[in-house]
Amino acid sequence: MYQVMVVEDEQWIRGAVVKMVEKLGGAFEVAAEAGNGEEALQAIYQVWPTIVITDIMMPVQDGLWLVREIAERRLPVITIILTGYNEFEYARQALRYDVSDFLLKPVLEEELSKALEKAKERIPQFHKLRQYYLGIQLYFDKITEYDAQSLFEEQGGLVSRIINAADLQESEKNVLLRTFSGKYNELIQSMQPGYARIPAAAGGRAEEIRAHFLKLTEEWLQCYNAMTSGEMRQIIRKVCDYLQAHYHEELSVSDMTQRFHISVSQFSLLFKKYTGQSFINYLNALRVQQAKLLLVDGERKVYEVAEQVGFQSLPHFNRVFKQMTGQSPKEYRKWLSV
Asked: Which residues form the HTH araC/xylS-type domain (predicted)?
């Protein structure tokens, strides 16, 4: 099954594209949605979709920014651009970022199907790299859960797997090592303003590369130990209280970081450490729990329940609800015999 992400700020267009993908079925399923390029990039590192379908014109960060970030970071993601007649010249700039296809709005189901099949042909070239990227992401997802000894062991094992990978070319190893190093530097920089990035050691001798990542891990531990104070616990507690009261509103990581004056990287790390879940999983769990209570009321339509608890589209609500409960909202209601 190939995971698809749909990125579009206009909810009705996004919902229409999501429905088309789900109607096509087969090898494709929608794994995530986003309203702008910044949200989408954050979600990519959590969901790791195979294909991203993105609008070109969006607020905050647009689709051109997103496909450029995907290309420059060498992420194993295939991109498809949505564009209007008056945006096509602008969209053509995306050609330099190895976009798979362009779809003219309003999107036709037949054209979408062709674009997805075309994208599928490119998937094998990303498969082997994808496994290593997932390993890097898993390391950062769990970085706050490791004690110092485990952290050094996990980091050392990951670096060794990349250096010694028989199925990778040297250029591919260098890309992976630069990605690993870059994410580490970004993480430390977000916690320690003024931090001087440690230059990537990709391309050097194995001993130099291992020493480079050892130093990064030491820097991270120093920053993290200084950051996890009582004040930070209070911030996350306030965030959780806010979500409990405002779960039905349209919320994002950016909203929380601006409201509570904390960097995105700090927020993501601390939220996971103190709640045991990512922000989006925590918020979705709140919404699904409230939806269960509302579904008991047989007078409400399922789409009304979805809107009331904060989901922007019915397909998204159905997908998240089933992921979390094992049943669709209609199946859950029937199970309750409502």
From this structure: 237-335
